[in-house]
């Protein structure tokens, strides 16, 4: 099968990793198709032999673009930035660019992986909420501190960046696990600023083709 044509994003509606890539694609106004991959149905479609050929790590997202298949959300977003520099999501200033990557890494490496579906299944039903709250709270303390010196209107200055693409899905996850967000006023302010932005709204889980009807009630 040829991979040339409209990009195809393998995505799960509530996956924050898929969500951040959807935001980046939307902000850059890159048309794409979504191929839903259920992380629950039949034990998880990500574990199928077919999908393992696409992503040997057996998780989402994966993006087929320009004749290539890319996995890992940050790698995908950096590729989009480098191959489609219009509507940039990394600042020109070298220090600010490093701050964007710093915030992305804290969220994508230090918070989200510790409360993804595979880890929570391993932790167990009784302890998963406490586990997720602990690691999100620990991570958000760090993010709030970083934002105190980097934020303007958004996470780094007054322009949208990849840091915002990573932050907003993580706020959703924090609410899902009933984390007290009152200690993080900068995070909350940025979340309010972006909740009705068209690119962010279009990427929201409730607007995905595989979102269960009951999740929108």
TrEMBL record:
EC assignment: 5.2.1.2
Swiss-Prot/TrEMBL catalytic activity: 4-maleylacetoacetate = 4-fumarylacetoacetate; RX + glutathione = an S-substituted glutathione + a halide anion + H(+)
Keywords of the record: Cytoplasm, Isomerase, Phenylalanine catabolism, Transferase, Tyrosine catabolism
UniProt cofactor(s): glutathione
One MF annotation (Gene Ontology) recorded for this entry: maleylacetoacetate isomerase activity
Gene3D superfamilies membership: 1.20.1050.10, Glutaredoxin
Pathway: Amino-acid degradation; L-phenylalanine degradation; acetoacetate and fumarate from L-phenylalanine: step 5/6
Localization in the cell: Cytoplasm
Pfam families referenced in this protein's UniProt entry, alphabetically: GST_C_3, GST_N_3
Domain GST C-terminal stretches: 93-213
GO biological process: glutathione metabolic process; L-phenylalanine catabolic process; L-tyrosine catabolic process
CDD domains: GST_C_Zeta, GST_N_Zeta
PANTHER family given in the database record: MALEYLACETOACETATE ISOMERASE
UniProt record similarity statement: Belongs to the GST superfamily. Zeta family.
Protein name: Maleylacetoacetate isomerace
Organism, scientific name: Rhodnius prolixus (Triatomid bug)
């Amino acid at each position: 099968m040829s991979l040339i044509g409209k990009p195809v994003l393998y995505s799960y509606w509530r996956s924050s990793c898929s969500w951040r890539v959807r935001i980046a694609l939307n902000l850059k106004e890159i048309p794409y198709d979504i191929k839903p991959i259920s992380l629950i149905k039949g034990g998880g479609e990500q574990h199928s032999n077919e999908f393992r050929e696409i992503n040997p790590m057996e998780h989402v997202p994966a993006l087929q673009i320009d004749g290539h298949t890319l996995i890992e959300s940050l790698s995908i977003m950096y590729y989009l930035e480098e191959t489609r520099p219009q509507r940039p999501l990394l600042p020109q200033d070298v220090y600010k660019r490093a701050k964007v990557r710093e915030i992305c890494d804290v969220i994508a490496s230090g918070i989200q992986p510790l409360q993804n579906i595979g880890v929570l299944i391993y932790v167990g039903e009784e302890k998963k909420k406490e586990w997720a709250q602990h690691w999100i709270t620990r991570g958000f303390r760090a993010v709030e501190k970083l934002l105190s010196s980097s934020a303007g209107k958004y996470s780094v200055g007054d322009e949208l960046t990849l840091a915002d693409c990573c932050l907003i899905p993580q706020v959703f996850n924090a609410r899902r696990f009933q984390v007290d967000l009152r200690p993080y006023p900068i995070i909350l302010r940025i979340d309010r600023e972006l909740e009705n932005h068209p690119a962010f709204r279009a990427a929201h889980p409730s607007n995905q083709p595989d979102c269960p009807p009951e999740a929108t009630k």
